[in-house]
């Protein structure tokens, strides 16, 4: 998939969090607060919380850096969530099909299931990788694709 967003940016909000496991809940809260302020439906909040949890968790696990950059971009008909880490190697994220007994390894499968599009690319400047996902929605106050 490419890194090109599917629409013109209406609003953008970026923030960074420390690359620690307790930052996952902080990223969820900050995202939910912003989506509430933008007037989006609760269904979008919940799906966005799932996606940002998975992407930030992956970044925390796989980065060698001390912080992670999160960005929400409200497009005309989709919310784009992007998470950038400072990288730790050349291999990018990929879908993994875990055994039923495994407790890890399903994050990108969940992101793939609830997103209208997702992908990954190297950061355009400096080290790191960006993983993004788009969630279709009908605009502020309207429910998006059910999850």
Features:
five-stranded antiparallel β-sheet; single chain; 5 strands; 147 residues; alpha+beta; Heat Shock Protein 90; 3 helices; 28% strand
The total strand number stands at 5
The tally of domains stands at 1
CATH architectural group: 2-Layer Sandwich
CATH fold-level name:
Heat Shock Protein 90
| Major β-sheet strand ordering | 1-2-3-5-4
How far from one another are the termini?
Answer: 21 Å
The poorly predicted ranges are 94-98, 141-147
**SSE succession:** EHHEEHEE
Put simply, the count of helices is 3
* Structural Rg: 14 Å
Under CATH, the homologous superfamily reads: Histidine kinase-like ATPase, C-terminal domain
Helix content: 25-40%
State the secondary-structure class.
Answer: alpha+beta
Q: Strand count, sense and closure of the main sheet?
A: 5 strands, antiparallel
Apparent shape: globular
Question: Can you describe this structure?
Answer:
With 147 residues, the protein is of the alpha+beta class. It has a single domain, classed as Histidine kinase-like ATPase, C-terminal domain (Heat Shock Protein 90). Helices cover 30% and strands 28% of the residues. The protein has three helices and five strands; from the N terminus they run E-H-H-E-E-H-E-E. Strands 1-2-3-5-4 form a five-stranded antiparallel sheet, with helices on one face. A hairpin with a 6-residue loop joins strand 4 and strand 5 (129-136). Helix 1 runs antiparallel to helix 2 and helix 2 packs antiparallel against helix 3 (107-114). The longest helix has 21 residues, at 42-62. The protein is globular. The model is unreliable at 94-98 and 141-147 (pLDDT under 50).
